[in-house]
Amino acid sequence: MARDLVPIGDVLGRLLKRLGLERRTREARIALEWGRVVGETIARHSKPVGVRGKTLLVHVDSSVWLAELDRYFKGAMLEKIRDELGERRIVDIRFRIGEI
């Protein structure tokens, strides 16, 4: 009988994937944790807006912030997303000027 038991996390994971909700769940989790993960200063000028493949899409409020984040902070942001959120599938971040 115990061999038939399956962890609920496995069942939910398969269900989310089958319904196409796995990506949306990941996006929502990143958005909810964004300020904590990247810090409040960066969070005031940026906002994750989606995941496309293995790339996190992030809007920034100016070209200055786009350049700063892309040049100096992208690596550290990816590392924190992987380490603190367990999002190992995210391998790149693409910044674009957009609504925050």
Give structural notes.
- By secondary structure, the chain is α+β, with helices and mostly antiparallel strands.
- Helices cover 57% and strands 19% of the residues.
- It is built from four helices and three strands.
- Strands 1-2-3 form a three-stranded mixed sheet.
- Helix 2 crosses helix 4 (63-85).
- The relative contact order is 0.17.
**Helix/strand-derived class?**
alpha+beta
Largest sheet, in brief, is: 3 strands, mixed
Quaternary class? single chain
The percent range for helix content is: 55-70%
The residue-averaged pLDDT reads 90
What general outline do the C-alpha atoms trace? elongated
Number of helices: 4
> Would you report the number of β strands?
3
Distance between the termini: 52 Å
> Gyration radius, to the nearest Å?
16 Å
Strand content: 15-25%
Give me the strand/helix succession: HHHEEHE
Biggest β-sheet: strands ordered side by side in the sheet: 1-2-3
Task: List its traits.
19% strand; three-stranded mixed sheet; alpha+beta; 100 residues; 4 helices
Can you give me a brief rundown of this structure?
The protein is an alpha+beta fold.
